[in-house]
TrEMBL record:
Gene3D superfamilies: Cupredoxins - blue copper proteins (2.60.40.420). Its main location: periplasm. The keyword Heme does not apply. It comes from Devosia psychrophila. Residues 1-23 form the signal peptide. This is Pseudoazurin. It comes from the Bacteria. Keywords: Copper, Electron transport, Metal-binding, Periplasm, Signal, Transport. It holds the Pfam family Copper-bind.
Length: 157
């Protein structure tokens, strides 16, 4: 009887410890014009999220997609590529910074940045410099925003 009680107590303790934490789902809009009047943008363009959170990219305006920039994401992280005019939900498990783009509008500066966890900005500057001028400038602005805010909150720039 005593061993049965110990088993039940142990099983209940195990269930309590195994209770999953609830990950958040964030939304990023793909828009022709953002709240600041900039054309072809993600809104928000910078997010800080926790490991295990998801981001749903929503094509608010037609003609957009969201996809990772393979050379500007943490080593070992899973890349993603959404289809034009379709939502895509991505789960971010690996800490670090992820740069992403809208393939049809990357040349117009349609890029975004997601910080997962508290990792410092560690994107390779040489890889950022390989982007065309407008997306490079926009991504550098977003990196500066992440560093200035110390990644404490999601920003909408």
């Amino acid at each position: 009887m005593k061993s049965t009680s110990l088993f039940v107590v142990g099983a209940l303790a195990g269930l309590m410890l195994a209770t999953p934490t609830f990950a958040a789902d964030h939304q990023v809009q793909m828009v022709n014009k953002d709240a600041e009047g900039r054309s072809m943008q993600f809104e928000p363009a910078f997010l800080k999220i926790a490991p295990g959170d998801t981001v749903t990219f929503v094509p608010t305006n037609k003609g957009h997609n969201a996809e990772s920039i393979l050379t500007l994401m943490p080593e070992g992280a899973e890349p993603w590529k959404g289809k034009i005019n379709q939502e895509i939900t991505v789960t971010f498990d690996t800490e670090g910074f992820y740069a992403y783009k809208c393939l049809p509008h990357v040349g117009l500066g349609m890029v975004g940045l997601i910080q997962v966890g508290d990792a410092p900005a560690a994107l390779d500057p040489a890889e950022v410099e390989k982007l065309p001028t407008r997306p490079e400038d926009r991504l550098l602005d977003l990196i500066a925003l992440a560093e200035d805010s110390k990644g404490e909150a999601a920003a909408t720039q």
